[in-house]
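User: Structure please.
Assistant: Input sequence and predicted structure:
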Amino acid sequence: MNGFVALFTEEAVWRSFAPGQTEPNINLESRDAIRDFSADLYQRNAGIRTGHHQSGLLFLELTADTARTQNMILVTQQGANESSPQVSAFGIYHDSWRKTGEGWLIESRTLHRDVLPISDR
């Protein structure tokens, strides 16, 4: 988890919007808040294998010190007794990056989730 959290600036903002909503259902405003949220989520999902599959990276803007990207995200989960992973979320990440002394870090990540198809989950 430390590797994931290290992708963000100290003052990073991470927001998630549920399908069709205009206000975030998750709003984290620091690397520490992102770490705490991630640790809690990891504990709540103990015993469940979760995958975050990202594709379709698109650079919307790129300068010497900043970048804006978007990419598709597909989250799958598989419990110990399940024969295959199931889609648990999908949507689009909108990221703002800043070049720092530590390299390129995310200063803002916004997830706009899409509606999941009908399933038994």
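The two ends are 26 Å apart (CA to CA).
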